[in-house]
C-alpha cells in the first residue's frame, strides 16, 4: 500500500505543528484585540506561505509545504477533513427553532441581506468581469454567480460570537439578527450548492435540472426525515453504547457519510456536513458534553489548521489589487449593511437598532473565504479576486463588532479575569484586622493610579462599617465607588491566617477582592460580585485558590474554573 | 498545489465513514462481551480489507481502499496522525509518580516481564528465523530484536482498563501492576526506539552509537527538563489564552512537534508523541477537562480508525499460519505470565496475587500490533508473522481479564445501568400506596423469574415497614434480600402522582427503584443504592427522569448522567 515515507512524516508533522502553533498564537492575539480568531489564523498561513516565508526563505517554504507529491496530498487531506468538521459545527449552531420562532422580521432581514447583495454583485460581475478578476475561460454566468454568493453569504459563527461578546445574543436585537443569519446561512448554502453543481464539481455528470432537484430534495429530506430520525435514534445510542464515546462517534460518522453523499450527488461534501450538523444540533437529545467535545476540538485544532492553510494557497502581496479590494469591499459593505438596515426597518425596528442589525450582518468571514477557495481551485476566479475576497471577508468581520458598539453606544462588559492584574495582586496579606487589610490592599493601587491612599481606604472602610462584606466560604469583597476613577479596579489578595469579615458562616476571609468602581457605572460592581460568588460557590475552589502562590497560578485558576464564556 | 480530486474526496469520506462506523459498532460489541474495544476495531479492518471484502467483492474493496494514488496517501496520513495522537494519550496515562511510589515490587515485575520474554523471543528468533517468518533479506539481529520487543512489550492502556473494569485499579495489586506496566511501557518503548533507529528508519543516517545516545538523551531531557518546563508554562497558557482552547492546542502542538523531532533524530515519530504525553500527563496543572476532550476524541474517533486501518494491511486468512500463531502465542503467554509471576513472588507477593499480576501483564494488545506494523512496513518480517503477532496481541488481551477473574475468584461489580432492563420498567405506575406499588412492581419480575409474587411483595413490605425507603428528592428504593435469587434484579418505575414513602424532605416518591438481591451478596445492594443517591443528588435529574416516556430514554438518561466509568 502506498504510504508516507519517513521524510514525508517528518515534514507533515513539522508543517502541521508550526501551522497550528502560529495560527493559535495569532488567533489568540486577534481575540485579545477583540477581533475574530480566524483573522489571526489566516495571517499564520500568510506568514508561513508564499507571501512572507516564501519570499524571504523560498527553500524553507518549499521544504515545509511542497506543492506536489505526498506532502501536498497529506496537507490537503487534513484541510479537507478540517473544513468538513468545521462546517458540521457551523451546522450544529444553526438552531432551526430560533428561525421559526423569530418569524417575519428575521426572515425579512435574512432574505434582504442575501438577495440584494447577490443581485448587486451579480450585475457588477456580469458587466465588468475582467476588472473583477474572472478566471480565463470560466463561463461568465458561473463567474457572476460565484462572486454574487461569495459577497452575499454571511458568517453565522462570527455573527453569533460578536453578539455573545457583547451580551446581545439573548436580547431582542440579537435573536432577530441570529435568525436572519441562520436564514442567510441556510439559503446561501443551498444556492451555493446549486452553483457548485452547475460547474460539474463532484463525481457525477448529471443534467443541471436533476442536480438542482436532488440538492433541494436532499436538503429537505435531511432537515425533515433525517432530523427526526436522528432525534429518535440518539437515545438508543446513549442507552446502548458507552457514554460519551457512542454519541461522539455517531455524530462524526454521520457527518462523514453525509458529506460523502453530497459529494456523490454532485454538490460539495461540506454542504452535507453542514446539513447533518443542522439536523444533529436541532435534537434536544444531543448532550452538551458531546457538543463541547466536538466544538473544542474543531474550533481550536481543526479550524485553525484549515484557515491557516488558506493563507498558503497564494501570494497575498503579489496578487494584491487595491482597486479590486476596494471595489469588492465597498460592494459588500454598502449592499449588506444597507439591505439588512432596510429589511429591519421594513420589519418595524427602530433606526438605531436597524443600523446595528446591518452591521451585525455585514460579516462575510469564514464562509466567504470558503466560497472563494472553491472558486479559485475550480479556475473560475483569478488569484487577485481570491485575495480581494479574503481581505473583504476579513475586513467586514473586523468592522462588525466596533461598528455595533459605536451604533449602540455599547460599553464592554468586563469579566473578573479581565480586571485582575499582577500589579494589584498580593499573595500574602500581612494585616490582621479588616481596617488594616483594606489599607494594605488599596495602597499599591492608589500609588499607581495617583489616588489618595487615606481617602480611598476611608471610603472603603466607611462602606464596610455599614454592612460587612464577608460573603462566606472564606471570601470577602470590600468595595467602594469613587468619583476619581475612570474604570473599575480590582485588588486581589490572599490572607493565610484569615481575617474576620463577619461572614454569615463565621468563616474568616482568606481570599479578598477589593473592588473600586467609578460612580458613573453603578451596575458593574454587582456583576463582578455575583461572578466572584459563583466562582467560590463550592468549597474546593477556596482550597485551590489558597494553594496558588503566584499571580499567574491565581489567574489560571479564575479562568479555568469560570463557566465557559463562549457558551 | 497538488490536491485531492472530487473523486478522491468522495472515496476518502466514504472509506473513513464506513471504517469508523464498522470499527465503533464492533468495538462496542467487544466491550459488551467484556473484551477490549481494539479487538472489534481490528475486526472492522479485517472485514472491510483484503481478508473478507477483498475476497468477496474485490472491486468494492479496491474502490474504497486503493493501494496506490492520492487515496492511499490520504488514508495513511489520517492513520499516521491517529497513531501519534493515540500514543500521546497512552503517554498521558503513564503516571511517573506512581512508578516511583510503588518502588521495588513494581520495578521487579516490570523488568522481569520485559527482559525474560525479550531474551526468550530473541533466542527463538535467532535460532529458527525462517520458521518464525523473517522477511527475506532482513538482517537476523534486527529481526530477532524486533520479534523480541514485539512479544515483550505490554499494553498499558488495556491493562489499566482491565483493572478499572474490575475495580482493582486502586487496590494494592492494581497499583503494583500499573507501576510494572508503566515501567515495561517506558523501557520497552526506549528499547524499541533504539531498535528502530538501528534499521535506519527516519531521515538522518547517523552512526548507531550516536542515535542510541541521542535517544536516551532526548528521553531523559523530555522527562526531566521538558516535564518541568511544561509544568511551569501551563499556568501561563491557562491564564493568558482563552479557556479551554489554549491548553488543548498547547498539548496537541507539543505532541506534533515532539513527534517531528523524534522522527528527525531517527527514531519513530510516535515515540516523541508518547514522551510528550508522559511529560504532559505528569503535570498537576493539566486540567481534567483537557484530558477528557483529548481522550474522548482520540479513543472514540482516531484510535478506531487507526486500528481498523491495520486490518486493511494484509489478508489475515491467506497469511494465517497456525503453527506460527501457536508458537508466538505460547511464547508470549508462558514467558510473560511466568516472568511477571516470579517477579511478583520475588517482590514478596502471595502466590494467588502473583498469578493475577502475571495475567495482568500478559496483555500485549495495541502496542504489539504497532511494533508488528512498523516491522512489516520495513520489510523485516513476513506477512505471516505480522498476522501471528496481531492474533497473539489480541489473544493475550482477551485472556487477561477472564484469567484474573478466575485467579482472584472475582465477581463482576454491576452498575445500575447494567441491571436496568426494559422488561422490568414501568413508565406509569398505577398504585397510590406504598404497599400497592410494591406489589405492582414485583409482579412482572416474579412472573418472569418464576418467583412467588405474594411472598416477594411481603418480604419487600416487611423491610419497608421497619424503615421507610424514601431517600428524598422524589426517590424511593424499596428492597429485599431473597434466598431464591441468583443475581440482583432492579425494577424501575415512574409514578406520575407520587407516593408517600415517608422521605425526610416530605417529597412524594416519583421515581422508584425496587431492588431484589441474593442473600449471598450483601454488598451489592449498598453500592446500587449509593449510585442511585449520587445520580439524583441534584434536583434537575428528577425532572429529566420524569420527562422520559420510554425505557430507552430512561436508560439513556441514567447512562449519560452517571459519572464517567472510564475515569
From TrEMBL, chains A, B:
Subcellular localization(s) per the UniProt record: Membrane
Electron transport found in the keyword field: no
Family matches, as InterPro entries: Cation/H_exchanger_TM, CPA2_transporter, Na+/solute_symporter_sf, PTrfase/Anion_transptr, PTS_EIIA_type-2_dom
Highest taxon of source: Bacteria
Topological type in the membrane: Multi-pass membrane protein
Residue span, PTS EIIA type-2 domain: 418-561
Regions that span the bilayer: 37-57, 69-89, 109-129, 141-160, 172-196, 208-230, 250-276, 297-316, 322-343, 355-380, 386-408
Keyword Transmembrane annotated: yes
Gene3D superfamilies with a match to the protein in the record: 1.20.1530.20, Mannitol-specific EII, Chain A
PANTHER family registered for this protein in UniProt: CATION/H + ANTIPORTER (PTHR32468), K(+)_H(+) ANTIPORTER 1 (PTHR32468:SF0)
Name listed for the protein in its UniProt record: Cation:proton antiporter
Taxonomic lineage: Bacteria, Pseudomonadati, Thermodesulfobacteriota, Desulfobacteria, Desulfobacterales
Amino acid at each position: 500500500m502506498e504510504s508516507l515515507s519517513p521524510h514525508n512524516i517528518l515534514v507533515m508533522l513539522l508543517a502541521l505543528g508550526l501551522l497550528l502553533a502560529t495560527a493559535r498564537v495569532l488567533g489568540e492575539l486577534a481575540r485579545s484585540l477583540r477581533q475574530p480568531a480566524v483573522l489571526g489564523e489566516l495571517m499564520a498561513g500568510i506568514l508561513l506561505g508564499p507571501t512572507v516565508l516564501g519570499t524571504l526563505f523560498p527553500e524553507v517554504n518549499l521544504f515545509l509545504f511542497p506543492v506536489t507529491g505526498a506532502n501536498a496530498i497529506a496537507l490537503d487531506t487534513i484541510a479537507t477533513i478540517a473544513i468538513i468538521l468545521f462546517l458540521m459545527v457551523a451546522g450544529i449552531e444553526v438552531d432551526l427553532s430560533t428561525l421559526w420562532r423569530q418569524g417575519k422580521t428575521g426572515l425579512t432581514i435574512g432574505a434582504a441581506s442575501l438577495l440584494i447583495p447577490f443581485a448587486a454583485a451579480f450585475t457588477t460581475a456580469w458587466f465588468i468581469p475582467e476588472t473583477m478578476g474572472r478566471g480565463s475561460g470560466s463561463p461568465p454566468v458561473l463567474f457572476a454567480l460565484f462572486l454574487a454568493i461569495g459577497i452575499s453569504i454571511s458568517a453565522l459563527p462570527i455573527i453569533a460570537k460578536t453578539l455573545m461578546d457583547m451580551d446581545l445574543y439573548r436580547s431582542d436585537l440579537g435573536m432577530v439578527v441570529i435568525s436572519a443569519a441562520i436564514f442567510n446561512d441556510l439559503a446561501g448554502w443551498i444556492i451555493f450548492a446549486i452553483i457548485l453543481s452547475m460547474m460539474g464539481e463532484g463525481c457525477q455528470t448529471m443534467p443541471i435540472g436533476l442536480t438542482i432537484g436532488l440538492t433541494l430534495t436532499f436538503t429537505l429530506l435531511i432537515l425533515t426525515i433525517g432530523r427526526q430520525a436522528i432525534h429518535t435514534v440518539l437515545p438508543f445510542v446513549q442507552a446502548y453504547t458507552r457514554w460519551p464515546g457512542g454519541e461522539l462517534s455517531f455524530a462524526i460518522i454521520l457527518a462523514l457519510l453525509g458529506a460523502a453523499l453530497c459529494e456523490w450527488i454532485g454538490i460539495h461534501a461540506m454542504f452535507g456536513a453542514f446539513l447533518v450538523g443542522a439536523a444533529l444540533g436541532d435534537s434536544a437529545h444531543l448532550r452538551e458534553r458531546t457538543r463541547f467535545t466536538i466544538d473544542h476540538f474543531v474550533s481550536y485544532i481543526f479550524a485553525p489548521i484549515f484557515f491557516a492553510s488558506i493563507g498558503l494557497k497564494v501570494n497575498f502581496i503579489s496578487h494584491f489589487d487595491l482597486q479590486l479590494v476596494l471595489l469588492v469591499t465597498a460592494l459588500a459593505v454598502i449592499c449588506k449593511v444597507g439591505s439588512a438596515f432596510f429589511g429591519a426597518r421594513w420589519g418595524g425596528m427602530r433606526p438605531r437598532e436597524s443600523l446595528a442589525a446591518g452591521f451585525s450582518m455585514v460579516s462575510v468571514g469564514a464562509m466567504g473565504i470558503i466560497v472563494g477557495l472553491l472558486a479559485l481551485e475550480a479556475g473560475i476566479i483569478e488569484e487577485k479576486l481570491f485575495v480581494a475576497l479574503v481581505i473583504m471577508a476579513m475586513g467586514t468581520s473586523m468592522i462588525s463588532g466596533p461598528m455595533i458598539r459605536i451604533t449602540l453606544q455599547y460599553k464592554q462588559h468586563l469579566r473578573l479575569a479581565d480586571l485582575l492584574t499582577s500589579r494589584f495582586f498580593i499573595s500574602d496579606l500581612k494585616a490582621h484586622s479588616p481596617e488594616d487589610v483594606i489599607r494594605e490592599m488599596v495602597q499599591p493601587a492608589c500609588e499607581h493610579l495617583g489616588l489618595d491612599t487615606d481617602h480611598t481606604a476611608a471610603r472603603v472602610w466607611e462602606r464596610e462599617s455599614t454592612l460587612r462584606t464577608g460573603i462566606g466560604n472564606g471570601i470577602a469583597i470590600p468595595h467602594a465607588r469613587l468619583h476619581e476613577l475612570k474604570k473599575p479596579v480590582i485588588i486581589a489578595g490572599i490572607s493565610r491566617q484569615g481575617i474576620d469579615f463577619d461572614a454569615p458562616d463565621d468563616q474568616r476571609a482568606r481570599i479578598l477582592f477589593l473592588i473600586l468602581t467609578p460612580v458613573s457605572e453603578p451596575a458593574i460592581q454587582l456583576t463582578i460580585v455575583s461572578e466572584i460568588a459563583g466562582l467560590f460557590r463550592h468549597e474546593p475552589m477556596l482550597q485551590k485558590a489558597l494553594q496558588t502562590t503566584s499571580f499567574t497560578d491565581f489567574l489560571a485558576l479564575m479562568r479555568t474554573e469560570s463557566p465557559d464564556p463562549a457558551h
